[in-house]
Design a protein that fits this description.
This protein is α/β, with parallel strands linked by helices. The chain has two domains: 169 residues, 3-Layer(aba) Sandwich (Rossmann fold); 192 residues, 3-Layer(aba) Sandwich (Rossmann fold), CATH 3.40.50.1260. 33% of the residues lie in helices and 16% in strands. The protein contains 14 helices and 17 strands. The protein is elongated.
Length: 399
């Protein structure tokens, strides 16, 4: 369902720009997948890397895959093994995926060097080595010794300078995979060359996490819609009593400063669905944002606000959405977020969804396949939208 769009703003070499026949391709993937009972409970991230993997195998290369999973405490832990991911991948690729005992070392090197074209090896969790997150170059050198070329297809980890994302590029020619290329195309479009009218939507709990992205987007977009918990802080900055709603008191002055310079670009909620406690079974009612009674808190945007969103989004050419506008995990407070998801699904605009909760929201609303692009990286997409250089991207070869 992806709409075609041909522009690579980052001007980085991709896997199509290098020869991989008979080469061992060391590929960084993002298999940091949710697990339940020792099995992969959502294989979306594994499927996202399939086009690049299939291309390598079709071109006569062999594949050595590496990823992190979870937060092990700097050593091997069975619950963070990538073996379940290797089993899922074997089914998806319809070929055996060999599991390595580690991600570096003499035994792993021996297995890697014996790989024939078309064969696949999954390395064990890179975070079983404490040096991974410190970008230990000695560890990176050992990783690089396994392959002839390096491909980064893990956009979700590109904002971290780790041994497997940045360090390894010091020792091997490094290019992007197709998933990374697609992320850079669509997110790059929002940062470097947005079509207008350009509407950005920011939600989520905290304004402090998103001050930079608010300021960057305000400079580029035509309207900025603010929802979720962060809207509470802006409303409090306007002098409204938000009662028991989540408000970051330490960010109120920042919110005032943003309001002062944003003119009418900023669109805040005018009504809310409020609750008498933070719980799925709370009592709820719809009120104007200036009439929240004592002991109640705002957990979703109200119907008038949703109508305002509809008006703002009409005629948009580009819409970027990062963060839900309510506590959509609770059905009673999901209406605003799901209404927004359906508006984007019906829009003729290019729709780019930041990863994390926004990606979950469009999936739960059943409209993920109607979006132009759903990012696989929450933190990485946010930093990209802030205009930050991502170390895992910067390290790739320029065209």
């Amino acid at each position: 369902m992806l709409r075609p769009y041909n522009m690579i703003p980052m001007n980085k070499k991709t896997i199509k720009d290098i020869d991989i026949k008979n080469k061992r391709v060391l590929m960084r993937v993002d298999f940091n997948v949710p697990m339940a009972g020792g099995k992969v409970s959502d294989d979306k991230r594994i499927r996202a890397a399939l086009p690049t993997m299939r291309f390598v195998l079709a071109q006569g290369g062999s594949l050595i895959l590496m990823s992190h999973l979870g937060r092990p405490k700097g050593g091997p832990e069975a619950e963070f093994s990538l073996r379940p991911a290797a089993e899922v991948l074997s089914t998806l690729l319809e070929r055996p995926v060999q599991m390595a005992p580690d991600c570096v070392g003499a035994e792993v090197e021996k297995i890697a060097q014996a790989l024939k074209p078309g064969e696949v090896l999954m390395l064990e969790n890179t975070r079983f080595h404490a040096g991974e997150e410190k970008n230990d170059l000695e560890l990176a050198k050992q990783m690089a010794a396994l392959g002839n070329v390096y491909v980064n297809d893990a956009f979700g980890s590109a904002h971290r300078a780790h041994s497997s994302t940045e360090g390894v590029t010091h020792y091997l020619p490094a290019v992007s995979g197709f998933l990374m290329e697609q992320e850079l195309e669509y997110l790059g479009r929002a940062v470097l060359n947005p079509e207008h009218p350009y509407i950005a939507i920011l939600g989520g709990a905290k304004i402090s996490d998103k001050i930079l992205v608010v300021e960057t987007l305000l400079a580029k977009c035509d309207r900025l819609i603010i929802g979720g918990g962060m809207a509470n802080t802006f409303l409090a900055a306007q002098g409204l009593n938000m009662q028991d709603s989540l408000v970051e008191k330490e960010s109120i002055e920042t919110a005032k400063a943003i309001l002062a310079k944003s003119g009418d670009k900023l669109l805040l909620p005018v009504d809310a669905i409020i609750a008498d406690k933070f719980a799925a079974d709370a009592n709820s009612q719809t009120v104007s944002v200036d009439k929240i009674p004592a002991g109640w808190r705002m957990l979703d945007v109200g119907p008038k606000t949703i109508e305002n969103y509809k008006t703002a989004l009409a005629g948009a050419k580009l819409i970027v959405w990062n963060g839900p506008v309510g506590v959509f995990e609770m059905p009673k407070f999901a209406a605003g977020t799901f209404a927004l998801a359906h508006m984007l699904a019906e829009s003729k605009a290019t729709t780019v969804i930041g990863g994390g909760d926004s990606a979950s929201a469009v999936k739960q609303a059943g409209v993920a396949d109607k979006m132009t692009h759903v990012s696989t990286g929450g933190g990485a997409s946010l930093e990209f939208l802030e205009g930050k250089i991502l170390p895992g991207v910067a390290a790739l070869l320029d065209k």
